[in-house]
Amino acid sequence: MLAVLPLLAVLSLPLRSGAAAASHHNCNAPLVSSLPHSSFQSSSQSSVGYAAHNAKLNRRDGAGGWSPMVTDQEPWLQVDLREQMEVTAVSTQGRYDSWDWVSGFLLLYSDSGRAWKQYRQEDGVGRIVGNVNSEAVVQSKLSHPVRTRFLRFVPLDWNPSGWMGLRVEVYGCSYKSYVADFDGRSSLLYRFNQKSMSTVKDVISLRFKSHQTEGVLLHGEGQRGDYITLELHRGRLDLYLNLDDGRVRLGSRRVAVTVGSLLDDQHWHSVHMERFNRQVNLTVDAQTSSFQTRGDGHSLDVDYELSFGGIPLPGKPGTFLRRNFHGCMENLYYNGINVVDLAKRRKPQIHSGNVTFSCSQPQLVSCTFLSSSSSFLSLPPPPPASGGFSARFQLRTWNPDGLLLSLQLHPGPQTLELQVSGGRLLLGLHGSGRHRSEATTGHRVSDGLWHSVRLDTRNLHISLTVDGEPSSNIELWEPVESRGNFFFGGCPSMNCHAQIPSFQGCMQLIFINGQPMNLSLVQQGLLGNYNELQLDTCSIKDRCLPNLCEHSARCSQTWTSFSCDCSGTGYSGATCHNSIYESSCEAYKLSGSSSGFYFIDPDGSGPLGPTQVYCNMTEKKVWTVLSHNSSAPVTVQSSSLQKPHVMRLNYSASAEQLRAIVSGSEQCQQEVVYSCRKSRLFNTRDGSPLSWWLDRDGERRSYWGGFLPGVQQCSCSLEENCVDMNYFCNCDADTDAWANDTGVLSYKDHLPVSQVVVGDTNRTGSMAVYSVGPLRCYGDKSIWNAASFYQESSYLYFPTLQAELASDISFYFKTSAPSGVFLENQGLKDFIRVELSSPSAVTFSFDVGNGPAVLAVKSHLPLNDRQWHYVRAERNVKEASLQVDQLPLLFFLILCLFCHLYLVFVVCLVFSFCPIFVILHLVFYRLSCFLILSHFCCFLSHFSHFVSVSFDRESSVTYTFQEPFSVMQNRSSQASSVSTDSRAREDVAFSFVTSQRPAMLLTVSTFSQQYIAVILARNGSLQIWYHLQTDRSPDVFSPALNNLADGRLHRIRIHRVGKNLYIQVSPESCMLKYTLSSDAELILIRSLTLGKVTRMENLNEEVLQAASKGFIGCLSSVQFNHVAPLKAALTNRGSSLITIRGPLVQSNCGALAESTSHTLQGETHTITQKLPKFMEIVQKNIKNAHDVFKNCLKLQNFVQNCLEHGRN
Asked: What percent of the chain has pLDDT over 90?
């Protein structure tokens, strides 16, 4: 019996994420203040009054806080929370009434108090800012909650005029934990009530920790060929998922989706998998991978059972096909079912084999060697049980070279050195003079995984074994013994035989002569010695996750950095950011090239790759020619509407590349030749098409020539030269003689032709011969643009640009002014600026979170000589560079590899000279300006959001943020999350053209009956409705009282912070400020809808009327916070997140937005006329480039408040 699990049944299952015992709606309770003295420990204390238990916030016990001994080289303060807690924030304070405080610290956490992990913020930074005096409390909210029992505060910086002093508090709540311990031979089997379970949606969540790199977490399969497997492999998480893919049954190799890295670190990791039909989201910790499953099915059919912890053979419990999981799982949920809880209560549907319900996994204590020049660990060897010596340990590193072990041998002088060389182990025995013996292993150990190493002396040879593989040996002439200490990871210079870099990485399970080495005694100074060593933790990081190399370049890494292999990508630079090809044929001609085949990169350093085209460079125009797979004429017979002839055209470029080339060109065209004999294009009785073609979006088109679409005619009708003027096409005359209809398609939004369908050649004597020419485009809109700046107060004002990981700016300029700012983008803390700092110097300055950096290129000739000069500046996560003309390229190394550049204000271009040519490329935005006879024009394209769509009355696009199933599960975790800014925020922007009123433009709804609605009222005025509290009437604002249903383009921007609401309707007005009646946030956002709303509760009558009328017109450049719903609708058709109702046609109806750059000039002049006094103040304050920058920010504030000032 096959049971299909209904979707509604899945949605009704109770879900918990951690099953909070305390209220996650208020997970910020103080956890330290009530702890006993025994919960506090420290590395040392200055005296009894400075003990660790005195370190409670705002307390004055003892000496008023904790302070370590002045001789303590690695101080720390540790807090035991007595049980597993969810920690959301920490607070620090200096020692009471003293000059002792900590200004920066690290936060470590642990389940056992032995193996520690460092807390890092989302940008990878581990340092937390502390105090500036002894009394003020500084609270640091964690960007992601930490579930732990032990916390350790490690001071980094303190008051230079005093000493370390610390009082702390920890905030959070308790949570319910359901734990299962798998010993490597155990499993949990969840058996279905039916023979087979079929689901169209699955949600699986769990947390796990392990010290093994391999192991199956979950497996299920069905007789139809479906399967799901979640397993650890080489410390990463692999998901194998198949829905009715018959190719797998034929023996094809299974393909995994891999997420995460270094997951065998004995710390908890969160896994969340959601599948709806074929769409899957797999999240491990904070990394998410989204993909579509293989196969043709939409449901997952699993027979009998799901197994957790391994893959048992049918009928043989306890035997496994693959290595089973060894570690702990916590809060394991399958479609809302708490599997561990069922097993713990011995429910009949759960079979538990040797699973225990407490996590007893051993905590292996590690140490980290931090420095490649000075780290070492010196340990005295215990006496061997019988002659010789032995050593064994586990290592983990990314570095290809480093000294692992060095020791002196007796009889001497002999030195034994074990090192990583070229990623493999090399054992060397150095005797007197130049005598040297070596042994190597073929096993690569610099892959970030744990490797076991064993060194033994026996029977006159020294053997080296790695991971249990066959040993490598060095032969001896006589027995040897160790003399003195064993030096791990490096050694003091006087003890080293050769200059080998110290080991950077982690070690654990160190044994000498068969005895374990207690690293706790090392930390207490009771055993051995060490330098540049971090005990109790392995601080390894995967710098290639996420892969910061762009354009699918291969990432490799060392302990401190990463590098990118750009081979075969078509890009160059430290992160493979810069395209090695020109962006268009026009650019190739400007560089002096002639006609021929070239690779072009239509979006420069953007995400699209290069493609090969033919550049036909004539005297008047430069044509870009893209061919397809059917250039020869095609003969068609015996086709009908029931069985038409279909030809699919495959081009030499991808659909995205074709779209970029077409949109960036001035004009494109494609010739279609249709020769016919008794083969009509249109039915002469009702005019319905008998043959047609499909555009680039797969939409049917039946016009056969001309610029304007929609008219079912051929070129002969448009030119009034058809053979029979009773018909609109020559072929529609339907004669026995050959006729021809040839047309040139030139409507860009429909090009290129993707398919040709012929349906009228099934009659006696019928035949058609057609051919489709290549796509031909000319002109490059990103090159020939210009801007001129004639006075010091001239500037261009553009929307906020964000360059998180990489940005490049290039432009030409000429001027006679001695200085001026080319471009400036200022955020709360981050900024970027390019300026002419002196007549012969260009400066590129920026701050990405680790302090300001400045690059300056000086020329031996003046740059203000009224001649064109080229500037190119680039910043990525590895380096920054500045190029001026042909002068040497200047580099600056960025040490903060995970710092992102967030620019939250406006971009302000300020110049005291003219003219200027700018090409700016920041992530997905391009701004291009060029001089044309000293006139100004500017082209701005938003590559990620600039999408235009035509709606009719029944059209709507709905973007679903969260479905009820996932919302129920995540409700508690969302409510408990701690934000860096507690105030609610929304950012909305879109453009529209319509003549309809009333009309529904946009609605945002939540599961808690809140909504935002943007409508046009019956008189055409704009109304914005905010309904944040369901027990109150909604707030209604009318920023534009005039009729906006006037067929013109209008741009709406809405920004909310708490109760403050900022609205701009351009080009009608500047930014207006309103105050809401509530600062409540939108709780559990359900969806965003553009156009007609068919079902929505709790709407006001006026909003409901607009919702029922829908929207007729054009919507473009729609953005809500980080979501671009129109782009998502057009590029992810079929996604479970997108619902499209009614006809939806992508068009160029939003191309009028380009005129906003011209309108912007008018706004600037209007502003100047309204407030000449303000502009006079600004101009007086501009004395140099730095003053220009400051006044740029003043101008931003001025623009936002200009209307209310202008009326005064």
From this structure: 38
